[in-house]
Specification:
111 residues; alpha+beta; Arc Repressor Mutant, subunit A; three-stranded antiparallel beta sheet; 5 helices; 3 strands; disordered N terminus; DNA-binding; HTH_ArsR_DNA-bd_dom; transcription regulation; DNA binding
Amino acid sequence: MLGVTELTETEDGLLPEPAVSEIELVAVLSALADPIRLRIVRELAAAGEPLACAAVPLPVSKSTCTHHYRVLREAGVIRQQRVGTARMSSLREAELGRRFPGLLPSVLAGG
């Protein structure tokens, strides 16, 4: 089995992500445990459409921001696609709902 980091970008610009059946609860919870990553997920959920990474204002450097998006993508929480020079991110809401019913709404509802 290939790990997410061993895969390459697809022709349509999608960055590597785990298949739904390979998303692990521990990885998702670990990714969502960080306040910055949780903020990203909440912003993406509120937007309801893909957002460029720069559209989510974060109090961290660009390299740290990139790290947080990568953790979320490799955990299977978000999908990222290159569109021109931007990376558009979207929440894998339906896929996470099939894999772990009720998890994402519970996390998003938390204060």
